[in-house]
Amino acid sequence: MTGIAPxxxxxxxxxxxxxxxxxxxxxxxxxxxxxxxxLIPVLLVTVLLAAALTGEDGxxxxxxxxxAGILENAALLSLAVTFAITPVTTVTGWR
Length: 95
Hints:
The chain has helices at 29-36, 39-53, 59-92. α2 (39-53) runs antiparallel to α3. Helix content is 60%, strand content 0%. The model has no long low-confidence stretch (mean pLDDT 75).
């Protein structure tokens, strides 16, 4: 006896194809890009902060001028990605 009740069937979850020899644990390139998008504004502000902290000439003024614009774009990008999640999952079937 196998311990499985009669009439009960187990179904293995579908596996991703191994096309082009990509291992299963490696995420798709699209997912990598989507996960890295929120880091772009953070990196831009980090560069401005590093310049201001090291005492470069005009860095604080540049930080004051550009930080609001960069963070504004980051908030808009985050909102757009949030709104796009449901349509993307519906169209592609991602879970």
